[in-house]
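If you are new to this repository, start here. Below is one unmodified record pulled from the training split, so you can see the exact layout before writing a loader.
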Amino acid sequence: MGIILSGAKGAVACFKTAMLKPVSHQKHAPTWLRPERPVIVNTTIPTTETLSRELGMTIHQQVSHAIDGLIACLPDPKQLSPELRRRIIARYTAVLEGNFIYWMTGAYLSVRSEEARAKILENLLEEVRDSHPRMLRTFTLCAHAAPTDADAHAVHADLTNVRLFIGRLSPCRIVTMMAFFEGFIQKFMPYLAELAAMQGSSEFEYTDVHGVCDITHTQELFNALTAEMALHPAESATDLFEGVNLLSKLIRCIVDPVAERSAFAQAC
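And here is the target side for that same chain:
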């Protein structure tokens, strides 16, 4: 279906006058007034699925931009002392080892679409079946970077904020955050492997696996987000990047090894 546009608002009176004249007079009317030359405008209303897909593509672009910004700001490993390199690996492990599966479980509990649940469940199955926490622990120990109390304290406040966010079980926000996290991890792996190598390690199973599998995981989570937004249009219209911003702050704490603040002491 279409609608016929009569012309500019200021010409409405002229249009009415022209329509009152005999048909023979109308042939002298301006081209834009001639009814035999209508302007057809497509008035088809996009479906919720179409809008969700378009919004999902925009979010994907914004998330990719945020990831690239974080990667670009990583300190040069060659300019870091062994202790500073150890801190980055240790803080990363302190955050990932006990929280990634927990956060992905929060995503699974929050979503309602069958597509989203299937993709997230597949991710969780792989994490548990292949014992990814074991891979990370082995990687960390071989790099002589086991987390200390100081490492746990350094990330405590920002980590707590992300945990509380997950606990609200907001499906679209959580899936957006986890897609961001998977994408960051995939691009962060070469850097993490370089840090470990400079610490004398030759154990790279964790970084090798996640440098590949997280490409697929990221895309699957964006597909899950599109499906979920179709079911939650109201949430889709709000700040979907709340979790991304909280997690970005936590990541900056991980990769800023010079920061000595005791977040735990501040929280207490």
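Two things worth knowing about this chain: Confidence is low (pLDDT under 50) at residues 1-27, 31-35, 38-47, 261-268. The chain is about 70% helix and 0% strand.
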